[in-house]
Every structure is written in structure tokens, then in C-alpha cells.
Design goal:
Strands 1-2-4-3-5-6-9-10-13-14 form a ten-stranded mixed beta sheet, sandwiched between helices. Helix content is about 20%, strand content about 25%. It contains twelve helices and 27 strands. About 50% of the residues are buried. The protein is of the alpha+beta class.
Length: about 650
Amino acid sequence: MSRFLFFLGLAGLALAARPAAAQTTAATRAQDSAFVRQNYRKVEQLIPMRDGTKLATILYVPLDAAKGHPYPFLLERTPYSAGPRGADSYLTRGPGPSRELSQEKYIFVYQDVRGRYLSEGQFEEMTPALASHPTKAAKGKNAPHDESTDTYDTIEWLLKNVAGNNGRVGIMGISYPGFYASASLPFAHPALKAVSPQAPVTDEFIGDDARHNGAFFLLDNFDFTNYFDVPRPQPLAEYQQLFPLKIADAYQFFLDLGPIKNANQTKYFNQRARIWNEYLAHDTYDAYWQARNIRPHLTGVKPAVLVVGGWFDAEDLFGALHTYQAIEKQNPGATNRLVMGPWTHGAWSRPDWSKFGPLSFGQNTAAYYRQQLETPFFNYYLKDKGTFNAAEATVFDTGTNEWKTYPAWPPKASQLRPFYFQQDGTLYGVAEGQLAPYQKIANHVTRAPVIPTPLGFSEYISDPAHPVPYAEGVLSSRNNEYMVQDQRFAAQRPDVLTFQTAPLAQDMTVAGPLGVYLWVSTSGTDADFVVKLIDVLPDDAVADPAAPSTTLPGTQRLVRADVFRGRYRTGFDKPTAFQPNVPTEVKYELNDVLHTFKKGHCLLVQVQSTWFPLVDRNPQQFVNISTAEAGDFKKATIRVYHEPGHASSLTLPVLGR
């Protein structure tokens, strides 16, 4: 879910935080507003669920729907408000999630989920799915329900009560609404024909908004929870933040805050934020988190599915990739496609996405997606209009700025190539003749590798009082551009290890998830590990006047990175202390990439133990981090080993030429 833009709703997501030149012109907005009023009527309705709870719902119905021109429904269920409210308050951008779909005409439906805004009931974070679908006859105050049943009941009501529909329904949503799109798939209503989970929140402990591999994402959740986690004893049209918050320097603010338990001081959450407390109370992958993992429930999928995500999504990159994978694995015959573009969270909904930070893509990637993929997808499955012959996977190569298509993702032609960290700071790639066919990362490399000398270890001192910043500069809030930022600021620090290849003799394309294999030790009893894959431009690179930051000599452009909390190395439900100074294996997976490292570029890997304040600080002692005291935070000496049998590496899925 968007930790900073959620309260703007889908309209705000399409307009906020982009360059002025890319914003919709006033003339276009006026044209869209006129189109809405001339072609749609607005209806506000409370729709009853099987247990009697009523959900606030807003419909935009084409005026000609009841005149012999039936339309399908396109539904979004959201915790971020279905508004604007009132008979005369219309969505000025158009009634649909995009200008293209608005012009196509659908019966657009927006619904506040249980317990949010004007809907009745109790809100639950990532509502746990029922193990089995109760019969339609199960009604009454105590009738079992989840997001699947609420979607089913909503569709049933719409079909029976809205004139001029063609009997078909589609669902889409970005971020948290993407979760509700995913949750509609189990035991789907027969009329549900097309579903598009976009950047869907999927598994918050393993890889989405709350934690990554067990490490708590402090910066995002502190800000988000202040708005989202407000107590709601009764339906509300608007939410107010729990406490006033104005941060000039986030790094210093969270250092001064101290241990994370201090967030519940009187001037901050003060025990009022239920979800915040749940996040911190459940510090292992226990029943709370397991029940909120939608992936095991994505079975028996019958609607056509289009999963969408962004390579630069700082919130739910994991969700898009793993939702697609779960459907693919558990539903061999399902119609299930994947689109991954050069986007931040929801950027494909913006009018223009031809640039991001220092990067220039040479094309409007958002318009391409909406016009060539999203609109044809819904038109085909809901209107029988046109064709939809998209490849299984349509993905953007972030190294060449090209769209690529594949019959499977990850591409089956990928071969795993380990790159070993050397004591002299080099990164040694196994020769191509030793490549293995693509297989699940976790099952890779069982034989002892053949690597050159020198052996031994590299080490650094990790100090929680002086953590490595996640991004360069003084920042008041999370900077999305950290996903592609030049990493030279980090490479200069003594608590960051670097390992670099020689310049490549030819292009190398990496396609799929990355496997981290570490042999490490700590003088403490716990540690975090952040591993980054970086594209290093040659020292003689020529600056491009149109995008100078992308081609500055020596730029260390981040391609992929993530954190792993070491205590979970034997299982996310089984935290285990490190034995001080004993070499220990830590392995995990970095999210997929499609990136071509060009001839003359180098591959660089960085290893560090803090990433602040994006991630909370680990005391580096095996204590309960949620209740840790300031005195629990200790310096630790971290060693990364290079010896045979204890060789640290990053394994890349490389496409053959």
C-alpha cells in the first residue's frame, strides 16, 4: 500500500508527486469533468452483505446503459475512500481508473471495505481468508465472511439491482485495493471475468509493506500508520492523523526517537494505533502473519488475471511478483499474465511516465501500458471487444529501456551464475561452462565452488548509533529514488563492503530473482544484512545532456537491494541467536530484475548491516527489538567469509546469448 499517498485515493495517486510538465493540463481536466457529467449518472448506495453489514458504494453509470446498451461493471474495493461524496461531487479525472477506460464506458463501482470510511463493520488488516467458502444460504449476524464473500455479495447485488448491465464484472486495484482484487479470486462469483491485482499487498512479513524478511520498515510505517490507523468507533467521511508530524531530517528524527518502543510515547501513537501495535507484537512469522498471506488461497482461479507491478516500487514489488507466481503454480490452466514496467508504486496510472529521477526511458511507459495492455484486457474479457494476445510476461529491461516479452517468467532460458565475493574486493563470476539450468534459487549450489585465492574474510564494524543511510542527503520523508540512486555515498563508508567485477566484455542480461548466499559471523548475537546489486558505469562514460545523471562516469546505479534479519535464517517462525564469532550461513532471495549490464560496465555488490531509517535498527543482540532499551544497542564486528565451503556469493539468473 502507498505509505505516503494512500489518503489521496486513486485520483491523487494519478496526480501527486510528479513533475509539473507531466501533469494533466487544466483544459484536459475540464474536458474530462464535462465528459463525466454528460455521460454518467452518480449513485450512492449502501449494499448489504450476508451478515447484514452495509458497505458504502458509489456507482458511475453510463446514461445510455438502460437504453439497450448494456455495460459491464468495473469494481474497485478500497480502504482509502470511495469518494468524493454527494450527488453533485464527481471525479473530475473521469469515473474510471484511467482516462482510457473512462472513455470506453463501464459501470464504474467504488466501495469502502468493511470498517473504513462510511462502511459499517470492523476493519481488519489484510483480512484473513476463510479456509472454505460458506454457502450463499449462510446468512445472519454471525455468518462467516471475508473479502471474497464481501466481493461475491457485492457482485450479486449489482447484477440484480443495477439496470443496463451485461452480466460481467471486472475488478482492479493498486496497492491495498490490489489486495482486495487478489482476494476476489478464491471462490469467485461466476460473473467475475477479469481481475487485475496491481502492486497488490500480499505478504507483509516476508516482502511487502510492514517487513522485509522480518526487518521492520520503520520510515514508511511510522508515517502511514499516523493517518491510516486512527480509531473509528463509527463510520467517518474523513480521517485525521493521530498526531501532528513535521519532519525536516528523517535520519536524525528517528535516531533521536531511539528504540522503536518510544514510538508509543504520549506525543506519538500513545497506544492508540491498533495495527502498529499488532505489527510490533508479532515479531515472528506467527499465525497473525500467516493468516494474512493471501498466496495459499489463490487456488481454483477462474477469471482472467493481469498482474501488474513496477521494478522501482518501494512498497509492493514483492506482492506483484509473488501473486503472479502463486497463481501460476497453483492454477496450471489459469489465464494469468504479468506486466512489470519501470515504475514506482502505481506510476502506470499517471498520465506520463517517461522519466524517473535520473533515468529517462525514451517513451511514455504508462500510456503504453494502459493503451496496449490494460484497456484491451478489460475490453476483451468484459465486452468481447477486440483481441487480447499479450505475452505471458511483458517486462521492461531497465538497462536497455526496451519492452521484452517472454512465454514464462522467470524466462526458462535463464542460467544461474554465481558471483563470489573476494577478500581483495573483486567479484568473481563462475565461467559460463559451469552454468546450471534455471531452478529455484533456494535449491541451487550444493557442490563446493572452485574460486581463486585470496581466501579469508572481509570485515566491518556495524554501529547502531551511526547507521548507514538508505539514501543520500537530508530527507524529510522516504525518497522513492533510492531504488535507482547512485551508491557511491555508501561505498565510501567503512561499514559497507564492496565487491566489483572487471568491465564486462559483452552485454549481460539478468532476468529473474537473485540468490544471496552469505557465510558471516558477528561478535554480537543478531545482525541484519543488506545486499545490493549495482550497475557501475565506465569511467569514460559520456554524459547525455537529456539525462546527465544516468551517464556520469563511475555512477553506481542501484539495480536491486533488500534486507534480511539474521535471526530468521533458520525460519521466519524460528528466530535463532548467532553464536558470537562463529561462521554461519545466511541465504535469502532478492526480488526479480530484468536488467542488461552493458559492455564496459561493471557489476558491484555492496554488503552492510544497517539501512536507516528505511529499516529499523537491529540492537545486534538477541533481544525483543520491539521492547528493546537504548542500552541494548551494541556495536558488532561483522565478517563476510570467502573460504572454500564458506564462500559468500550472489547468484544471478543470466540469459544466454
